[in-house]
Amino acid sequence: MAIYEYRYTEFTDFTKKENCEKYQEALDQVSKDIGKKYPLIINGEKIFTDSLNNSLNPANHKEVVGIISQASEKEAELAMGSALNAFESWKKTDPRVRADVLFKSAKIMRKRRFELSALMTIEAGKPWPEADADTAEAIDFLEYYGRQMLKLTNADEQVLSRDRFERNEFQYIPLGVGAVITPWNFPLAILTGMTSSAIVSGNTVLLKPAETTQVIAYKLMEILEEAGMPAGVVNFIPGDGPAIGQYMVSHPKTRFVSFTGSKAVGITINEEAAKVRKGQKWLKRVVAEMGGKDAIVVDKDADLELASTEIVKSAFGFAGQKCSACSRVIAHKDIYDELLDLATKKTKQLEVGNPENQSAFVGPVTNQKAFDKISMYLEIGKKEGNITIGGTGSDKYGYFIEPTIIADCDPDARVMQEEIFGPVVSFTKVKDFDEAITVANNTDYGLTGAVFSQNRDHLEKARNDFFVGNLYFNRKCTGAIVGYQPFGGFNMSGTDSKAGGPDYLTLFMQGKSITEQY
Ligand code: NAD
After folding, report:
1. 40 Cβ partners below 8 Å, 6+ apart?
2. Which domains does the chain have, with CATH numbers?
3. What lines the ligand 1 site, CB under 6 Å?
4. How confident is the model over 408-457, as pLDDT tens digits?
5. What is the pLDDT of residues 63-101, one digit of tens each?
6. What is the pTM of this model?
């Protein structure tokens, strides 16, 4: 099968009128489905349950985007049976056929690109370019992992055979049934990446999406089915995290857990998965991608116009709800005031509002719980530093928080240490570059980071000493591209996996050596 080379998906150009019109039409189209009911999907069968979840529009919480059936333990058990059964044939399905399901899904996503993005605008509160980038990343994961699987089928080339004596083979084989537990902040991209990597490697899956973005998750199921995925390969069981998620993690037949979400839940999952239960024949593998407290370091000779622009984009894009979002700025004392002033002025220009309007840069945060948590941190921030802009919010119609800068924070302040996951960034002042890197590394996390400097020695120091999984020089700390910037962090940011990287699929497989003597 001849396959063209992988290349990332271009973002939609919203300076073009026709693209804006298409997006507006897509918003109108998805609005027609408001309030629709969605089932679970187990072994290809659609199951409606009495237990339901209303997925709300975070910009207008009176609007119910969709009503989704919720799985209980009974349905999770059914899903496990279905996945175990499907594994027997799917593991033996030619990897090229499995990869083809991904390539076809990518094609369907391309066709439905505006619709999928518009749905994320109303269900996840994503502004147009953010939603478009989410869909583009989902397509990239499908195209990239499909190709990675094809490469791994030639694993034989990596081992030697001794002439006239023995022939060696080396193969990657799948693990078994995986619990795939996903977050709401990249409700299509991460969902697609985590699901497709598991299944293209030959595993079958119980898929539990986050509570607030279950409608877009259902759309992935539609797409995979249309692309030819056999029944039972992915079993869609949305439900409550601590209930159904926990059940999936602790099930003795679960072979691996693929999780993306918060540090607290990641730790719980890791602990639960480590316990060996009755009837369990393996140690579960846990792939966890967790939170961040990402820093941008600004050196004394940095281009401050550029640095302030990129700080504002990194901190407030998608209302700061990216694991890679900048939530700390560590600035040299000589330029601290000027940088803070520039960042504050640029933040003032941002439009906060309903992301259905193209001009809104900062949309809502995801739900009441997030609104309350971020509001709590705004109060803490008022005590720990000086607010130069923002500091308020309103949950009257939607969950809106003003983009907020908290200046003059101590590196150990709570707002400098704890993941807030909203449009809030804290600034701190340092005496020199060495101190900047020490402060940058002074959290439990190690996900992304950026450095603005013209000093080559300082950049080299950061290259060696800034302990993050994704490090950027003289650009923002968000926006990693599949296959170009493999993504994932150190320390409490996860289990050191790299989504969209060349070794990611091997996390869902095990190697088998076969030697024949003759
Ligand atoms: P979350 O931890 O609250 O939930 C993630 C998923 O876990 C959801 O599906 C939830 O239902 C489920 N869950 C909750 N409790 C559970 C339990 N006890 N057992 C099993 N499953 C359970 O996270 P979130 O709010 O959905 O996402 C935001 C978080 O994700 C942030 O911390 C962010 O930094 C992180 N994140 C990390 C990455 C990365 O690549 N490192 C990417 C995106 C998001």
Report:
1. 46, 47, 48, 49, 69, 70, 71, 75, 79, 236, 237, 238
2. 31-290+496-517 (3.40.605.10), 294-481 (3.40.309.10)
3. 181-186, 190, 208, 210-211, 241-242, 245-246, 249, 260-262, 265, 268-269, 289-292, 323, 419, 421, 447, 488-489, 493-494
4. 999 999 999 999 999 999 999 999 999 999 999 999 999 999 999 999 99
5. 999 999 999 999 999 999 999 999 999 999 999 999 999
6. 0.97
